[in-house]
């Protein structure tokens, strides 16, 4: 049995996913919180790029807000060619092919796998077909600068809409999968 692999990003209308704390403003309400709880509930493993792991490992340990309550105990798999050994925070360094590692992880254990980031990690694993569903919470804002999940280097690809809805805060929450 293959475990489900999911990813979620906050986005501006013009596709910026970098530093959503700079554009979310008041567009995160109870519906968004409920979605996050429902999505993260079955997750037992998180795949994280090194840069994001280093940022989070300095902030989240000891923080017990709803996301802290999720990320602190979950098993973290850190994609890195520079970290080594025991890095703590319930984390394992993944040195080697990230796609092969996630494919193997999907065949072992129980629960969902969340690819938490960074941007390049989510992009590469989604394009490789090892992320089953990509959810974007599109906030009602246009931002002039910032990295996008899919830039001009990404080839044409067809996606299938899995789910979509709007929230009282004005967000469009859309979930996509690669189209067969």
The CATH architecture: 3-Layer(aba) Sandwich
Beta-strand content: 25-35%
Tell me the major beta sheet: 8 strands, mixed
Which structural class is indicated by helix and strand composition? alpha/beta
Helix content: 25-40%
- Highest CATH level, the class: Alpha Beta
Total DSSP E strands: 8
* Strand adjacency order, main sheet: 4-3-2-5-1-6-8-7
Q: What is the domain tally?
A: 1
CATH-defined superfamily = Dihydrofolate Reductase, subunit A
- Integer-rounded radius of gyration: 16 Å
**Element string (H = helix, E = strand):** EHEHHEEHEHEEE
Task: Please report the distance between the alpha carbons of the first and last residues.
Answer: 20 Å
| CATH topology heading | Dihydrofolate Reductase, subunit A
SSE diagram, text form:
Layout: E1 5-11, H1 30-40, E2 43-49, H2 50-59, H3 66-71, E3 75-79, E4 91-94, H4 98-106, E5 112-117, H5 119-127, E6 133-138, E7 159-166, E8 172-178
Q: How would you describe what is shown here?
A:
By secondary structure, the protein is an alpha/beta fold. The protein has one domain (5-178): Dihydrofolate Reductase, subunit A, CATH 3.40.430. 25% of the residues lie in helices and 28% in strands. Strands 4-3-2-5-1-6-8-7 form an 8-stranded mixed beta sheet, with helices on both faces. It starts with a strand and ends with a strand.
